[in-house]
Design goal:
Blueprint: H1 2-18, E1 23-24, E2 32-41, E3 44-53, E4 61-66, H2 76-83, E5 88-93, H3 117-129, E6 134-140, H4 142-153, E7 162-166, H5 176-190, E8 197-198, H6 204-210, E9 232-233, H7 234-248, E10 257-262, H8 284-291, E11 298-303, H9 315-331
Helix pairs in contact: 1-3, 4-7, 5-7
Length: about 325
């Protein structure tokens, strides 16, 4: 506990020293953004970005949203579901993602999932300083993996009260051989050669099903959320591998957790309409299984016809996501 308090105080000092004033967000007209410098890492200068929109009426409740891999915050409609219900909305663009990416960095690069913990610590501290007494930690996909490990380390944290995970990335969606042989081998090599790269997984059909310039309905910056994910480093793969192993050894998160995911997954080498109605990134069976490894207050809900990012699904589907989410928040007196 003393070690935790000491680390928090150090982070608070960094926030106070480096936090700038909020500015107009670069992507969303009705949002503000705050850029916060962090200590340099192995690539040099590091920042994270906190995006915010306050509730329609003064509130002491907030949500902190953390995006997934090859991603950044752009889901304006989702944020408005909170603000119109009296919950202040914040989103964190992690270091090397979206608004936080700097030209000298390898985009999305990391060697340990714990590299993101100071960003979350600092963001939550800012949210508390702005008068929010109740905070929901909300994350999608790889953000769900990061947030789960973070919450497990921060069991005594006074900065968040509940967790909502949207299709969390709790296991690799690949063949048994790749999971048991290829990934462990790359992870081992990643210890000594973290900068060596390997081709990123192709998510082209998923990306096409989302963006308005292809087959989807959403508009976002393809330079920071490309249709096909970039190459990744061995260090990156090693970090994911170790994170998944930690999940499999079981976590002991004390806060109530809601996990939502699609009711089915899809894998196809050609375009099908089913991409609009399935998770085309992860195996929903893995999500369902490993969600119960997170803590002893876990509720899972399978959303019929949901996409990987449930709040980017077709309108009737995401309305069902919102209904389940806010019913759950009411049930835990959030």
């Amino acid at each position: 506990m003393k070690k935790y308090i000491s680390s928090i105080m150090i982070l608070v000092n960094f926030v106070q020293l480096w936090a700038q004033d909020y500015q107009q967000d670069k992507y969303l007209d009705s949002f503000q953004m705050l850029t916060v410098a962090q200590p340099d890492d192995y690539e040099g200068k590091v920042t994270f970005t906190l995006v915010s929109k306050l509730a329609d009426e003064k509130s002491n409740k907030a949500v902190l949203y953390i995006h997934g891999y090859c991603d950044y915050f752009f889901q304006e409609e989702y944020a408005e579901q909170f603000t119109k219900r009296g919950i202040n909305f914040y989103a964190l663009d992690l270091r090397k993602y979206g608004r936080s990416y700097l030209p000298h960095q390898v985009i999305y690069n990391m060697r340990s999932l714990e590299e993101y913990f100071p960003d979350i610590d600092s963001a939550l501290e800012i949210i508390k300083k702005e008068g929010n007494d109740k905070v929901l930690l909300n994350a999608h996909s790889t953000g769900g993996l990061i947030s789960s490990l973070y919450a497990n380390q921060r069991k005594d944290s006074p900065f968040f009260d509940a967790i909502f995970l949207n299709s969390p990335f709790l296991e690799m969606n690949m063949s048994w051989f790749k999971r048991k042989a290829a990934i462990p081998l790359i992870a081992k090599k990643g210890l000594k050669k973290p900068n060596k790269t390997i081709k990123g997984s192709s998510l082209s059909f998923y990306g096409e099903s989302l963006h308005k310039d292809y087959r989807g309905e959403w508009d976002y910056d393809l330079s920071v959320k490309p249709i096909v994910s970039p190459n990744v480093t061995y260090g990156f793969i090693r970090a994911l591998y170790l994170g998944h192993n930690e999940i499999k050894n079981r976590l002991h998160i004390t806060q109530p957790i809601l996990v939502m995911h699609s009711d089915k997954s899809i894998q196809s080498k050609s375009w099908r309409e089913d991409f609009y109605y399935s998770d085309s990134v992860l195996d929903v069976g893995d999500i369902e299984k490993y969600s119960y490894y997170l803590g002893n207050q876990v509720k899972t809900i399978a959303i019929k016809d949901g996409m990987h990012d449930l709040v980017l699904s077709r309108t009737p589907v995401r309305n069902e996501v919102y209904r389940n989410l806010f019913d759950w928040l009411d049930s835990i007196s959030f």
